[in-house]
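My current task is to audit a protein record that another person submitted. Please read both lines and tell me whether the tokens look consistent with the sequence. Do not assume that whoever made the record got everything right. I have pasted the whole thing underneath without changing anything:

===
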Amino acid sequence: MVGPAPFNEPLREPSAWIERLTLTRFRSYTHATLDAGPGPVVLFGANGAGKTNLLEAVSMLSPGQGLRGATFADMARQGGAGDWAVHARIVRQGLVHVIGTGPRPSRSAAGLAAPGARTGRIVRVDGETEAGSGVLADLLEIAWLTPALDGLLTGPAAERRRYIDRLILCFDPHHRTRAGHFERAMRQRNRLLEDGSRDAVLFAGLEEIMAEAGVAIAAARCDAVKALNAVWQRRHARAPTSPFPWATAALEGTLEAELSAGRPAVDVEDDYVRALASHRERDRAAGRALTGPHRSDFHLTHGPKDTPGRFCSTGEQKALLIGLILAHAELSAARRDGAPILLLDEIAAHLDAARRAALFDELVLLGTQAWLTGTDRAAFSGLENRAAFLHVEDGRITHF
């Protein structure tokens, strides 16, 4: 077990932070426990040492499948029994809570886990087993930026939709429920199309659900983008020469466009129901619904250069993404009771000394327990006396 770093200056304590993290048979770790203070946590060590695995473990303290989006089976230590656990003692609004999570395997009639079976996960809070992972959103807000997201501005639209939807979850936990209702109704409609059904009553019922949930999803995205743009304007006014430039976010989608134009949601719902009904044969030929929030996109424009993010240089795109997660954190802090925990994997790798210093100052001012990883401790010298420094090597964690 390792302890927190001694902080030589007062820090603004986050509204929620992880005091102790324990991993059991998780990824490269047989067992590991670390303690941290409320400030930033720097994990440094060679490539492959297990730094990202620690971040992934932290991300499992939020709803969903974590920062890698991996199956729960893939999180188990190789050569182990296939189980794993992540436990944490957290402090939220001055109160201590204990969280535990791990896989819940599907069972065969003989009581054994079925090979290849999909699993859910068990979540316990303060010793009580919860119905699902959604309860974690009430305790911790966690956002992340990893190298896998470096292509967010140029990659598939699905990745950008997932990002904006996860941002919304930080202050609207019901967004996941709406998305689930839409996805289930759409899958059932797709199945009817595939089976050749022309039962108008069945289609109408599913299309009503899709319209109601779909317009609510689009409205939440519009609200989030409007709020993000307002945060960026404030950031620009506060620091016009920031190395993480302000940006303009925009949505591309039929429902989002109609709502942004000021049309009442009930009218947009009615139009979407009619569109789904009239496009059944087109959708049958395509094998899927071709209109809806599942086809929308999210774009960023580099504010100072007035250039679409996808056309910016690699360095400019990285700066935009850092600006996005900082704006995300600032928005969450304003809408809830404090900034989220930020997981920033290999964040210093492509930043010069000035940009690193600017980022570290922003994190401290936000009052977030940011977890940062990198291979070179010297790259984080700007956080000396302001962060806990932990060396990671072959599944071992040592405090420095």
About this structure: The chain has nine helices and 15 strands. The radius of gyration is 22 Å.
